[in-house]
Specification:
single chain, alpha/beta, six-stranded mixed beta sheet
């Protein structure tokens, strides 16, 4: 346990260091959450009893010794997805004196290690992480150095005390499929991202459950995997169209995949939505500009970045957080890319 003078009240971060636990664990104890081991709770409460606890309500002011900087860590900025989350980070920082610094990893371990090494100089107070592959050593290094962090849209397993912000992917997948079912579709294809990531797995689980609840068997040949990008989605859509009995509707794992879907359908002379209905996921700015405008599940990326940053600022300030896992709603945005199936669609 850290050696701290008993003459003054402690911040949450100092209590965590003194008790040998994480900041989220201290937050759970303060908020009287039940999911804390009795021995851990007793240790934290003992530190609070001995030293006291001070809540900093001036979240926008900086503490002595802080850099006034947080890191926004992302694989690259080559997608609207990353820019949307970054915009949310920037919005959350507008009323504060804190600045954000970009750290691009390009999914390269050497760059990731260089970023981790840079943290030793105290140049950052915390990090918002948007990584394609969360490796255990990354988070362990942050924990070891007692650097607060929040993960946005996690693509890997997190520790029980690690904070994250994501979307209700499972509910979004179910909503998209239920909408297509309500229009009369029964052969609905699912064009997902890589199967080893949690988000597409959850969206596919929602798709499966919606079909099962409607009494429709899940047909494995209608489930295809791409990589969330245009070209692979185009190729996979061509495979679906080559089936003896093609689908009448497609639920795609993100909006960028829908660009590839549209291209494949156009080349085959298949009209949307008269012959094929299409639903995306994300509600990127270009979705409303597609022809026809894309019906999609809105993933609140900007809000995810904003919420994650506010959570991080509270951790840095030593304030309680309301929840360790935050999931934001994913509503259906109805536009012009869906309609009832036609019996003569390929005649």
């Amino acid at each position: 346990m850290a050696d701290i003078s008993p003459q003054r009240s402690l911040t949450m971060a100092e209590i965590a260091a003194a008790a040998g636990v994480s900041v989220p664990t201290v937050s759970k104890v303060i908020n009287q959450r039940a999911d804390v081991a009795p021995a851990t709770r007793e240790r934290v409460e003992r530190v609070i009893a001995e030293h006291g606890y001070v809540i900093n309500r001036a979240a926008r002011s900086l503490r002595k010794g802080q850099s006034g900087q947080i890191d926004f860590v992302v694989q690259s900025l080559n997608s609207v997805y990353a820019w949307q989350i970054l915009s949310g980070v920037e919005e959350a920082l507008i009323p504060t004196e804190v600045r954000a610094v970009l750290a691009l990893t390009h999914d390269h371990q050497q760059r990731e290690r260089q970023w981790i090494q840079r943290l030793t100089d105290g140049s950052t107070d915390g990090a918002v992480l948007v990584l394609a592959d969360i490796r255990s050593w990354q988070l362990e290094e942050l924990r070891r150095r007692q650097i607060p962090f929040v993960v946005v849209d996690p693509m890997g397993e997190l520790g029980p005390d690690d904070l994250s912000v994501s979307a209700t992917n499972w509910a979004g997948g179910k909503t998209a499929t239920q909408y297509l079912l309500s229009l009369g579709h029964r052969r609905i294809a699912a064009l997902m991202g890589t199967p080893d990531h949690p988000a597409p797995r959850d969206r596919l689980s929602g798709y499966r459950l919606a079909l099962q609840e409607a009494g429709i068997p899940v047909d494995p040949v209608l489930i295809r995997y791409a990589d969330f990008h245009f070209q692979r989605a185009y190729e996979e859509m061509n495979h679906l169209l080559a089936l003896p009995e093609p689908p009448t509707a497609v639920f795609a794992g993100n909006d960028e995949q829908c660009l590839g879907v549209y291209r494949a359908l156009q080349e085959h002379g298949i009209a949307v939505p008269e012959v094929m209905s299409v639903v995306g996921f994300d509600d990127m700015p270009f979705a409303a500009l597609m022809t026809p405008a894309l019906t999609t599940i809105r993933q609140p990326l900007l809000e995810m970045g904003r919420v994650a940053t506010k959570m991080l600022l509270r951790l840095i300030a030593g304030e309680p957080v309301d929840a360790v896992r935050v999931e934001l709603a994913t509503p259906l945005i109805k536009r012009a890319s869906c309609g009832a199936p036609r019996q003569d669609r390929y005649l």
